[in-house]
Amino acid sequence: MAPMSSRSFIVIFLPLLAFSCGPQDHPWNALDAERPIAAFDSVFIEELTWMEIRDRIADGATTAIVATGGIEQNGPYVVTGKHNVVLRATNPGVRLHHIPEYYTEDIWSFEQLKELGIHQEPDVQSASRAGIHDDYHYDAIMATVDPGSIRTRERRDAGLFEINGVPLDPLDQTVSNGQALVARRAEITIAAFRKSLEE
């Protein structure tokens, strides 16, 4: 099987994008309007203009990511958009739609964390270990994108830069572990996607 192209995209409702907002008589709203600036390169649709999306389709792109993690309460240290930050870490290497194995295979990286020498308390495979929806898996992945999203400075200042009995310093090690977790999530998802293509 040929490798997936990093230029693959899906675009949904392109005509809606072109006509849903703004004055309709402006020349830049025409579907054939020339893009006035160089195209931005991103796998995230929300980072592209409608013209960039249109031109990617014209260039043959057929798949895109519409990644959303929603927001929820995650305890006192982690931003409510935790899953969106995790998506930022995992999606550049994974150019596909929802695959159940992303969530179900080694859920919350329970086994991989042990392989990395990370042993949390309590030692349970749960979305709310220790009573909050936060654990080393999330903190490490989020730190690869933005250490501020896990409130690194504030937790250090308060002497709370740890999770479930595991220190998050040195931060470089936590980021390195997060990168390993992201790589495994990508491998799991790509393998599941390729398998689904064969079915």
Q: What are the secondary-structure elements, in order, as H or E?
A: HHHHHHHEEH
Portion of residues within helices: 25-40%
Q: Please work out how many helical segments DSSP would assign.
A: 8
Low-confidence stretches: 1-24
Shape summary: globular
Describe, in plain words, how this protein is organized in 3D.
This protein is mainly alpha-helical and about 200 residues long. It has 8 helices and 2 strands, in the order H-H-H-H-H-H-H-E-E-H. The protein has a two-stranded antiparallel ribbon. A hairpin with a 2-residue loop joins strand 1 and strand 2. Helix 3 crosses helix 6. The N terminus is likely disordered.
Please give the structural blueprint.
Elements: H1 14-19, H2 50-58, H3 82-90, H4 100-104, H5 110-115, H6 136-145, H7 152-157, E1 162-163, E2 166-167, H8 171-198
Antiparallel strand pairs: 1-2
Helix pairs in contact: 3-6, 6-8
